[in-house]
Design a protein that fits this description.
Order of helices and strands: HHH
Helix content: over 70%
Strand content: under 5%
Radius of gyration: 16 Å
Shape: globular
Largest sheet: none
Length: about 90
């Protein structure tokens, strides 16, 4: 199965706009967390730090079986809940 690249900001579906909005809110919370971690950083530096952390996440998941297991469990729960919601709405 070939994966398609996900274009968050070019999507026209309601579901993608909703998902992108939720993701944006979580990124904001993470940026706030990082700023509390190092309050001396100015706003653009905190965002650059967040980008650096996001860049390192795939390797962190790959190298930490517990983190990878947590990610897989979250993915499973999301798919299960989406299927349940789709079944209930029909």
């Amino acid at each position: 199965m070939t994966r398609k690249k996900i274009h968050i900001y070019n999507s026209t579906t309601v579901q993608m706009h909703h998902a992108a909005g939720l993701c944006s809110q979580q990124v904001e919370k993470f940026v706030d967390y990082l700023h509390n971690f190092d309050p001396e950083l100015n706003p653009h530096e905190v965002i650059l730090l967040a980008a650096a952390v996001f860049n390192e996440l795939p390797g962190a998941f790959k190298n930490d079986p517990e983190m990878l297991s947590t990610l897989k469990a979250a993915s499973y729960r999301l798919k299960r809940n989406l299927k349940r919601n789709a079944t209930n709405s029909n």
